[in-house]
């Protein structure tokens, strides 16, 4: 459920309240207030968000409760092609183990507080953010956690996406995402802060967030990750909403204890390929139904050849 109101003070403000409940009993509640900066071509705003989430994490075999506050500034420059975002976050998290949770994850159970500051700069010329047929995205993001609370780390992330039209409405698209986490103050990276890959949104054919070091049936995440996807799209009917595509995915996550992260990323790459359908609903959400075959995997990986479904806004 979602409810919103625009310009209730007559100055461009927006307020949104949302509540969701999934078939797997995941629940979330969120409130957001946004205030734009007024003036000629001032494409910037500030916002405040409060949320509360309850979710089951199948890759960790445990439950997570999260209460958070966000304060954010968003700005646009250079003919609205350069985007700058600064966000301050304070989160109270609770990791609740289940009977199946392994000890290597159970040791992180309980309450933690994370206070972080994030900064990102992006250059974006894509004609559509859900499924671009032309244009380029370059994004650099940094996050520093350790102002208060238990989480202390620095995270760097690089995102790249390029799309180019071909003949008869077909087009190619390539995406890359690379992330590095560095723990501070000699503390171990919390299981909730680590990097994960796998699933219908990045390395298709593998179970969600399942790539990397494992503890029995659970994924332990990592401190360095790399993922890349190459797509070939063919428009169907209606041509602006429905597409067939073929794709090739690769990705890897290096352990938090890795002595040579670049070597691990190069030597333990997972690869998958497949074909499927992509549906864009109202330029709001992207839906994929794919048939995927893992072509390269490592011992202990959790993967499922066959049909895989995904719906969301952030896809590689």
Question: Could you walk me through the main structural features you see in this protein, from its secondary elements to its overall organization?
Answer:
The protein is mostly beta strands. The chain has a single domain, classed as Beta Barrel (Porin). Helix content is 3%, strand content 59%. A 15-stranded antiparallel beta sheet has the order 1-2-3-4-5-6-7-8-9-10-13-14-15-16-17. The chain has a two-stranded antiparallel sheet with strand order 11-12. Strand 9 and strand 10 form a beta hairpin. The model has no long low-confidence stretch (mean pLDDT 90).
SSE arrangement:
Blueprint: E1 2-6, E2 14-21, E3 27-36, E4 44-57, E5 62-77, E6 82-97, H1 103-106, E7 110-124, E8 135-149, E9 153-165, E10 171-183, E11 214-215, E12 218-219, E13 224-235, E14 242-254, H2 261-267, E15 270-281, E16 285-296, E17 306-312
Antiparallel strand pairs: 1-2, 2-3, 3-4, 4-5, 5-6, 6-7, 7-8, 8-9, 9-10, 10-13, 11-12, 13-14, 14-15, 15-16, 16-17
């Amino acid at each position: 459920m979602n409810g919103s109101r625009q310009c209730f003070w007559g100055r461009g403000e927006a307020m949104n309240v949302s509540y969701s409940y999934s078939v797997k009993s995941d629940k979330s509640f969120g409130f957001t207030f946004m205030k734009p900066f007024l003036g000629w071509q001032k494409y910037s705003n500030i916002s405040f968000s409060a949320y509360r989430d309850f979710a089951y994490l199948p890759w960790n075999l445990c439950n997570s409760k999260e209460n958070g506050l966000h304060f954010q500034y968003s700005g646009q420059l250079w003919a609205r092609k350069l985007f700058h975002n600064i966000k301050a976050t304070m989160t109270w998290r609770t990791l609740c183990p289940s009977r199946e949770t392994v000890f290597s994850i159970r040791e992180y159970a309980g309450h933690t507080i994370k206070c972080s500051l994030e900064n990102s700069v992006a250059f974006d010329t894509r004609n559509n953010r859900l499924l671009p047929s032309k244009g380029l995205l370059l994004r650099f993001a940094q996050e520093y956690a350790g102002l208060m609370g238990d989480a202390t780390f620095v995270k760097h992330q690089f995102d790249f996406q390029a799309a180019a039209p071909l003949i008869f409405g077909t087009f190619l698209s390539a995406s890359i995402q690379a992330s590095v986490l560095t723990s501070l103050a000699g503390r171990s990276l919390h299981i909730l802060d680590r990097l994960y890959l796998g699933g219908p949104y990045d390395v298709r054919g593998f179970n969600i967030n399942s790539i990397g070091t494992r503890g029995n049936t659970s994924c332990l995440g990592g401190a360095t990750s790399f993922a890349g996807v190459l797509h070939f799209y063919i428009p169907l009917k209606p041509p602006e909403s429905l597409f067939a595509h073929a794709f090739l995915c690769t990705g890897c996550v290096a352990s938090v204890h890795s002595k040579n992260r670049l070597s691990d990323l190069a030597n333990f790459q997972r690869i998958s390929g497949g074909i499927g359908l992509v549906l864009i609903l109202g330029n709001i959400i992207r839906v994929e139904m794919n048939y995927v075959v893992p072509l390269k995997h490592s011992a202990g990986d959790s993967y499922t050849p066959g049909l895989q479904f995904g719906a969301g806004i952030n896809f590689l």
